[in-house]
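Why should sequence recovery work at all? Because a backbone constrains its sequence more than one might expect. Tight turns favour small or flexible residues, buried strands favour hydrophobic ones, and helices have their own preferences. The token representation captures these environments compactly. In the example below, the structure is given first.
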């Protein structure tokens, strides 16, 4: 079942690998930045200034434009207490909102369960990319994962639904055992029909979409274009997720990071243009985050795993501005050579869940956290 109601949607862009906070929102007015980053720094005359102290990386022109329009919230010093420098563990913490235990459910999976408790819409949540982020994983919650919207589906070349179901059953018997309804068949029996339905619906989205906006050919922009196509088809998708990599810039950082941020800024700028063209700027909010920042001192040509990072929330309904203080670069304030986080990521989640998606945040983020008021009244 699909819906044509225009409820608020959350678009998530995960920056995988640990995005360098210091070279994204650059503290160009602080000499300690240049003392620490003798090589891997952004020269003052190249920074896109926010004020006399901070500025955007020069590759982030479209996001700077949106900032000037009051549509970008910069969430400074975001992280959690007792930081972990492992990509896998830190991302797991962000995905499950469980810093002190191994979480079993993703925070967005819980949100999806609350948004659609009867699983009436197989497209409430969609991931664009391979695999399924832990943030979306939750027992009993169906999430669609799309590699390529144009060709997406289970045996999409088979037009007859009965034949496709027969093919699924044959596939399950090939890989699932010899006799009876084995676990593979049980799983397909539970999800196969929903998957076919979702695939068939999603494949209609490109034909229902028209836009003058040109998206760049890079993988992120094309995934974001797919997000836009599905969003504007009004299929009831409330959470649309994608990832961009590789932000693990231990070497050769300046050129690599510049291209990564150019991809992100270009994709977001195109999406916001698309939303504006369709009169939908106030219906979607874009969350951009990474599992951690990088160390204050460079390592010669790159930077290593750090702690506090930066997140962004972007949209027409977003109350643009700075949220939280930029962590101090003073040595006494550092945590083992890293920026010290001063802004719990669950405060951002709480603001999004309660003020944007209309949900009770506490059971989703595992506790009560001071809410960031990120949206216009």
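From this structural description, the recovered sequence reads:
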């Amino acid at each position: 079942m699909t819906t044509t109601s225009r409820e608020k949607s959350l678009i998530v862009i995960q920056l995988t690998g640990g995005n360098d906070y210091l070279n994204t929102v650059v503290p160009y007015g602080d000499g300690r930045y240049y003392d620490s980053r003798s090589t891997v720094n952004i020269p003052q005359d190249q920074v896109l200034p926010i004020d006399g102290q901070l500025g955007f990386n020069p590759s982030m022109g479209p996001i700077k434009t949106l900032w000037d329009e009051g549509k970008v919230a910069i969430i400074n010093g975001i992280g959690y207490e007792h930081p972990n420098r492992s990509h896998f563990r830190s991302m797991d913490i962000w995905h499950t909102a469980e810093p002190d235990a191994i979480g079993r459910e993703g925070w967005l999976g819980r949100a999806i369960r609350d948004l659609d408790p009867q699983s009436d819409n197989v497209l409430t949540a969609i991931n664009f990319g391979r695999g399924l982020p832990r943030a979306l994983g939750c027992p009993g919650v169906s999430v669609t994962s799309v590699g390529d919207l144009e060709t997406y589906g289970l045996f999409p070349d088979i037009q007859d639904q009965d034949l496709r179901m027969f093919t699924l059953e044959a596939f399950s018997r090939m890989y699932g055992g010899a006799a009876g309804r084995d676990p593979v068949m049980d799983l397909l029996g539970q999800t196969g029909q929903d998957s076919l339905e979702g695939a068939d619906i999603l494949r209609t989205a490109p034909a229902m979409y028209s836009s003058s906006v040109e998206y760049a050919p890079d993988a992120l922009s094309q995934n974001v274009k797919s997000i836009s196509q599905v969003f504007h088809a009004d299929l009831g998708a409330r959470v649309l997720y994608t990832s961009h990599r590789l932000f693990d810039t231990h070497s050769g950082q300046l050129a690599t990071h510049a291209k990564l941020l150019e991809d992100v800024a270009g994709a977001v700028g195109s999406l916001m243009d698309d939303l504006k063209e369709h009169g939908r700027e106030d219906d979607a909010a874009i969350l951009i985050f990474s599992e951690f920042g990088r160390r204050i001192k460079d390592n010669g040509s790159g930077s290593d795993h750090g702690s506090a990072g930066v997140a962004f929330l972007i949209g027409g309904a977003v109350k643009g501005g700075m949220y939280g203080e930029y962590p101090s670069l003073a040595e006494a304030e550092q945590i083992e050579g890293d920026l010290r986080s001063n802004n719990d990521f669950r405060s951002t989640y709480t603001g999004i869940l309660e003020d944007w998606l209309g949900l009770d945040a506490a059971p989703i983020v595992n506790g009560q956290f001071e809410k960031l008021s990120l949206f216009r009244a």
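A few observations help interpret the result. The CA atoms of residues 106 and 134 lie 5 Å apart.
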